[in-house]
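The protein record quoted for completeness.
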Amino acid sequence: MNLPAPGNRVLLTSISDEMKVSFIDYAMSIIVSRALPDARDGLKPVHRRILYAMHEMGLVPEKPHRKCARIVGEVLGKFHPHGDSAVYEALVRLAQSFSCRYTLVDGHGNFGSLDDNPAAMRYTEARLSKAASDLLADLDCETVDFQDNFDGSMQEPIVLPARLPGLLMNGSSGIAVGMATNIAPHNLVEVVDGLVHYIDNPDCTIDDLRVFIKGPDFPSGGTIMGLNGIRDAFETGRGSISLRGTAEIEETGKTSTIVITELPYLVGPEMLIERIAEHVKSEKLTGIADLNDESSRLGLRVVVKLKREANPDIVLNNLYKFTQLQQNFAVNCLALVNGKPELLNLKRILEVFLKHRLEVLTRKATYEKRKAEERSHIVSGLLLALADIDAIVATIRAAQASDEAKIALQEKFGLSEIQAGAILEMQLRRLTGLERGKLENEQADLLAKIASLTLLLGDKQLMLTSIKEDLLLMKAKHSSPRKSQISAEYSNFCDEDLIPNDTMMVFVTSQGYIKRVPTKFFESQNRAGRGKGGIAFREEDDLQHCLACNMHDELLYFTNRGIVYSEKVYNLPEGSRQTKGRALVSVIPMVPNETVTAIIPISQPVQKESRLILLTKKGEIKKIELHSFGNVRRSGIIAMGLDDDDELGWVRKIESNDHIMISTGEGMVIRYADSELRAMGRAAGGVKAITLHAGDRIVSCDIIPAALEDKFHLLLVTDDGYGKRVPVSEFRDQKRGGMGLIGIKFKRATSKLAGISIVREPDEVIIATAAGVILRQKCNEIPSQSRMATGVRLQQVSEEDKVISVSPVQVEENFEPEA
């Protein structure tokens, strides 16, 4: 490396070293001078300079407002050499009640809203608020250090005395180089209570402080969901707080309306409406008919009108999940302590503020004591002069000049130069007895004040008591009720919270394709109709299972191998009547040659006494507790032990004291009580359910609920579309393993019983054929007949087709069809 010639000021250096040093200097300048607040007063330099400039201009709360352009010019010219727009934006934020929990600027004019910009600075006016006055109080008592401004022409405070805990009171946000801060505002009443407790109990824990400081208090209100985020923020300085707007559901005739009256922090109604409209357009949000912003001076009001068929609770949950109606506030309590960035927990923030207040009070007391001692010194000289006024006057008259008189007074009466000067400046009216009494009283007061301040400076506990009293005074002066509520209970939205619990039809084909279709696509038809196509088949495929269930139900898939799998209904592919569905192996991981033989919908919560009946094709039956399938692995679990030549065929849910009904293809039906079976484990096999005639086979089974048995009928449907209802009372109880009773006679010798179902008068039934033709009809339109009757035609079934499934759709007895 060539060294520079003598006298040459060029210094050669490595560019990487220079970049490193320069970047660090730049980063620290941004961090300290612009982006991060001071932990003592909670202000960034620009905010501190604005408040100090307004203080110097005399814009106290009792004085008239002044144009903001004048204030911005004062700040730019004296303290903050940056753009006027940056200063004005900072000034505006201090005046916005929706940005600051306690405004520091009292604004007059249009200072904007969450959706609109403020008016130009030439139109708006401002002055200090009462809270700002308390941040600036005692600034003239040498309580804080001052530094040169940007050109060294004047001084500005490094920090404000801050009688209020500004960092917690209003929070702060900013992005520096490599770091950022985001501190939530809090309620001053709670913060003061926490500080008082900390003063009285310096060894208290953060949990102790949380008794007083409940959590953030945002100026926009809303509800803080859960305590974990608050706990993390208080303990570590970092946390994620979930804030939810306030919304109510109002019923207006046959439709519902969601009225939003509070939004999360810094979220405007226009912003929210735009987001909702985007999601409605993309069909991410459904059920919304109209949006209106009805906000006024009386407060926020956003009205979301819903469609007639919409579920308001589901729509509201979707609004919480997909819009700014609920969002997280990421707390990052990073602030400057002794000029360096530090991540602060709650106790550390209170400690830094309290230490600052101790220093301010110490400097103020020291200043006041010095001023009192200086004044006491002068007053004692004046009293001495009054005691021998004739000699004092004679000495002054004998002098040729004031300087000579001052020296003579010092030498003759032992006065100091300051005392002698005060005597020379004393007015003749001070010679009256009344004035002498005033001086004596003033001297007594000064001595008492000096003694009090000396005692205060020598006793830290007295200083803490004084700080506590001052804090309580601030609490009474600026108290306001909490705006943000805190909800202790919170859990993330699960899928059920966002999905309507609509009734669906689930179709499974023999070749293993599955889909769900809303039941609204299958309106009721008259008896003996042809029905509608429910599924489009691939070649050589037909319908194997058809059942009605709800979207929130959990489906238990039982296979011929005695294995059970589990999946939610809403996770199934939804299609129209014409779609073919998705391969079942993509939903549950079945092995080759494994087929689903039974599907049971389980609604939550499951009753403790609920059990399942498992029936094999060879007539083996088993009862098992339903909670045995409460945690089904993805790969499935054993449901029933089977013989090598047997397969699991049917599964039904049963409660205590219910009755079991099993039917065969030849029309035989057996009924016996639940007590005929005892509950067994998952791996156990079954016992004999029914005795079959030669060539006969089991085709279906169902359960008679013990409650209100007289209201139930047994619906029997043949494979050629005939059927009837029979009162369940016509089937007497038998012992397990019997042959049963005749349930139906057939019109043709080739006919077989396709299935049975326990139904009530208000219910509907969905009959499905192998070709995928679906017929939905009301049960009360199906005639009730005796066991020996052949029934009536329920569905027109072609010669090549046959009925394979009978699925009831339960309807509440007070159900009224929609017009």
